[in-house]
Amino acid sequence: xxxxxxxxxxxxxxxxxxxxxxxxxxxxxxxxxxxxxxxxxxxxxxxxxxxxxxxxxxxxxxxxxxxxxxxxxxxxxxxxxxxxxxxxxxxxxxxxxxxxxxxxxxxxxxxxxxxxxxxxxxxxxxxxxxxxxxxxxxxxxxxxxxxxxxxxxxxxxxxxxxxxxxxxxxxxxxxxxxxxxxxxxxxxxxxxxxxxxxxxxxxxxxxxxxxxxxxxxxxxxxxxxxxxxxxxxxxxxxxxxxxxxxxx
Length: 248
Prior knowledge:
Layout: H1 3-13, H2 39-55, H3 67-74, H4 78-90, E1 94-97, E2 101-104, H5 109-130, H6 136-152, H7 158-169, H8 179-196, H9 205-221, H10 224-235
Antiparallel strand pairs: 1-2
């Protein structure tokens, strides 16, 4: 099954239409005046909920959102909502034109490929820094994430596979002492995740699983060479830019 075909089915079953209509974002903040909640906390909450809605397919590429509607759902002013939306714009997940639209970004396969190249370079630096001293709890979390990844593969559910993959590769960045590196990895990975849900074909899940297995072994044995081998596998991973032509 091609990913484009599967994603079409996912979109049809969603309650959030693709296109100009706006959609609600699940709110976790109880209705309250902005004075009762620290603005920074509200911004973080709105950012996290909109981000989750993008990644789980509740909000689809090209779909319009409204800061006033989101503010009403959360029972807060538009100011923290606008700040959260601005943060999402800064990492490339939202596009906006003043007075015209605010919508979920439509990340192209080419943009996904470019983001993946940047992420891979950053993660190589990370692996060299942290593999030899990563905490045992990180190793245990990576093992659990890999098990979830393996369990999700037979379902061909792109959202579950993407979630397990993101969880796995999110374990090592907090071990870095380089805050700039942490931020750079976090920013680019969201573009990859969103773009990976809408590729014309699936990526090589077997190679991705092999890279995860090697990284687990690298952390387990504190062996940087094995970590570099994992990154070499990821280096050979191809991001499909267009659907293969059917064979005659």
